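Retro notes (design track)

What went well: tokenization of the new backbones is finally stable.
What didn't: we kept losing track of which sequence belonged to which structure.
Fix going forward: every design gets posted as structure first, then sequence, in one message. First example under the new rule, 358 residues:
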């Protein structure tokens, strides 16, 4: 049984904690056996040394991913075929920029926003998980609804809309959200008939912040999903699924209707937040399908010093289904071109109507 609450899982593993600081997810969300196992697995990356050459760096990167990436079979990726195809592009006389391009192209075959290659000159990334879809969000539209008199509590912007519906916008889970912040927000909105939590364009951050917010909407310990970790170097060598549990906050909690607004840029820890809220059975999800990102990421390095981040531990919803490719909303609503012209946030208006008709 895996408890998400940081209070119940302390590690004291300095190496693993340093790895966690460079990820979108906080590493405290998994059990001590997982930490020990992953630390051992990642140390194995350095067992076979490669030259700091184009070929050496290519082979090192390919092997790191081959032994530790967690979604090969789920995504139907033939990693051996990818190796042979991209190896042909490696030349001993190629520049660092050319090598970086080839390695980034190879990693893009995984179609994973958690897979990144970092150098002092560039940051290799795969962003098609949101770039190929409508934005369904507009800063100018949001300013129309928020105005200038909204309140700010850490990472949260909030106000009471003119129909007595509370609105909270959380752009990122990177910034700390304290219990005091959440108490003040709920106190300010407590007389509202319902609450809208807008996490559109939230690409993730610390999992503990997502958990802390979701804990305000449960009254009892709730099983919200599962997690696995690699137990060996094979693509299918995983542990049994371990349950993820969400504990209710001991502070103020929300008991009225709540709606969560999503779009394709909702990713990583924000995707997990949607997973939690759906598992509570108390929230309605409105907007577009989320972007996904259901692999707990870890990092390693190449002989040249470049850093590679990758999904290492797959996570699932409370039904045991992967959310790597996103979570479908309860109501799929888009903002059309005409809506933008009229200055109407269709997704937000739909949520207000839903609460008003509750």
């Amino acid at each position: 049984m895996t408890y998400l609450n940081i209070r119940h899982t302390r590690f004291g593993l300095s190496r693993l904690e340093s790895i966690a600081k460079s990820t979108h997810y906080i590493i405290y969300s998994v059990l001590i056996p997982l930490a020990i196992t992953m630390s051992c697995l990642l140390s194995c990356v350095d067992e076979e040394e490669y030259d700091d050459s184009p070929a050496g760096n290519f082979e090192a990167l390919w092997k790191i991913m081959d032994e530790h990436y967690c979604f090969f079979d789920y995504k139907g990726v033939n990693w051996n075929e990818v190796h042979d195809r991209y190896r042909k592009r490696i030349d001993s006389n190629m520049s660092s920029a050319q090598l970086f391009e080839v390695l980034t192209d190879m990693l893009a075959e995984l179609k994973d926003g958690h897979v990144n290659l970092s150098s002092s000159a560039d940051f290799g990334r795969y962003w098609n998980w949101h770039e190929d879809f409508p934005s369904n969000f507009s800063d100018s539209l949001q300013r129309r609804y928020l105005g200038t008199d909204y309140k700010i509590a850490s990472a949260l912007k909030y106000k009471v809309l003119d129909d007595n519906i509370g609105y909270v916008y959380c752009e990122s889970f990177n910034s700390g959200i304290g219990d005091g912040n959440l108490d003040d927000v709920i106190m300010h909105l407590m007389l509202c008939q319902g609450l809208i939590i807008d996490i559109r364009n939230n690409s993730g951050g610390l999992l503990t912040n997502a958990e802390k917010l979701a804990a305000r909407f449960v009254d009892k310990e709730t099983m919200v999903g599962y997690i696995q970790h690699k137990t060996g170097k094979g693509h299918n060598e995983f542990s049994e699924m371990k349950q993820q549990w969400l504990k209710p906050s001991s502070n103020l909690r929300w008991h009225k209707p709540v709606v969560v607004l999503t779009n394709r840029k909702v990713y990583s820890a924000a995707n997990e937040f949607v997973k939690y809220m759906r598992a509570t059975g108390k929230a309605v999800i409105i907007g577009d399908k989320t972007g996904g990102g259901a692999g707990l990421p870890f990092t390693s390095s190449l002989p040249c010093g470049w850093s590679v981040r990758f999904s290492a531990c797959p996570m699932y919803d409370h039904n045991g289904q992967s959310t790597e490719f996103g979570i479908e909303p309860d109501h799929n609503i888009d903002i059309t071109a005409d809506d933008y012209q009229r200055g109407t946030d269709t997704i937000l208006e739909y949520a207000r109507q839903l609460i008003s008709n509750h």
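Added context from the reviewer: The radius of gyration is 21 Å.
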